[in-house]
Amino acid sequence: MNNYRHLYERLSQHTDKNNVLVDEPIRKHTYTRLGGTADFYITPSAYEEVQAIIRFANQENVPFTMLGNGSNLIVKDGGIRGIVMNLQQLSSIWREEEKVISQSGARIIDASRFALEEELAGLEFACGIPGSVGGALYMNAGAYGGEIKDALESAVVVTRDGDLLKLTADQLDLSYRTSNIPDNGYIVLEATFALKLGNKEEIKEAMDDLTYKRESKQPLEYPSCGSVFKRPPGFFAGKLIQDSNLQGKKIGGAEVSTKHAGFIVNKNNATASEYISLIEFVQETVKEKFAVQLEREVRIIGEDREENR
């Protein structure tokens, strides 16, 4: 533990001590099963606690990182300094008229399933997206022709200063796999989805169809970050990678999936550096063969091992 250790007791004043873990391995909280340790891993249980911790980090000049469900993220082997916050305890979902309101720590899959049970249509596309609701807004997650901006009405966020704001979907500038949430330093606490009354059997049929497509085509049997690259204009990333004969390419324990070329899997206890090196190799190879620059969809954060401590 580094020079932030003395802050533990003071941090614990803002949330239950059981919600503050020290030197927590991040690999336990990411879909890739990669990443070093976090100095502090905090899971607040109330909006006020989130606000207080952000203000504390500002006052003490402690680095602060928000972690969602860890599904579209690679954390480097050196880990993350300062505070890492996860809102997994803020996971309630409820209905108001034809709207579904979800706290950001809930899985977007669960919000989709809740809508099904309430016979509300409009979130079927999200039935296979593995991230949290907050993470889904962060990157305007989408699948099979649908995306968050199609259903989102508004969001409650915390600003960099720890203040609460309610913003409309338009104010979040949602576009293909992006939003203004990272640039503004917002932390999503709650999302309101405006849906429509539907037929439960039809909604379920659509979700079952999308689930089959996902499970039959994606390498869900291995840890991965999901789809690694954004879709380049006029192309499909997976097809370019496949046509570059890269399926099965390995660096250490990381491998370009033989089931879906757009995925890189942690097949054999890969390190983050191996996983990132394979991403870069794929980018270089596709650029050389097809003159197309693949842009990462997955985020990479943290420190390299040699930089740590």
UniProtKB/TrEMBL annotation:
Record has Cell cycle as a keyword: yes
Statement: the UniProt record of this protein carries the keyword Glycoprotein: no
Query: Which compartments does it reside in?
Result: Cytoplasm
What does this protein need as cofactor? FAD
Q: Chief location of this protein? A: cytoplasm
Q: Which reaction does it catalyse?
A: UDP-N-acetyl-alpha-D-muramate + NADP(+) = UDP-N-acetyl-3-O-(1-carboxyvinyl)-alpha-D-glucosamine + NADPH + H(+)
Q: Which PROSITE patterns match?
A: FAD_PCMH (PS51387)
Q: What does this protein do?
A: Cell wall formation.
Please state the pathway this protein functions in, per its UniProt record.
Cell wall biogenesis; peptidoglycan biosynthesis
Organism of origin is: Oceanobacillus locisalsi
Signal sequence span per UniProt?
Answer: none
| Active site, UniProt feature | R177, S227, E297
Q: Which Pfam families match?
A: FAD_binding_4, MurB_C
In the record, the note on similarity to other proteins reads: Belongs to the MurB family.
Give one GO molecular function term: UDP-N-acetylmuramate dehydrogenase activity
Name-wise, this protein is UDP-N-acetylenolpyruvoylglucosamine reductase
Give the UniProt keywords, A-Z. Cell cycle, Cell division, Cell shape, Cell wall biogenesis/degradation, Cytoplasm, FAD, Flavoprotein, NADP, Oxidoreductase, Peptidoglycan synthesis
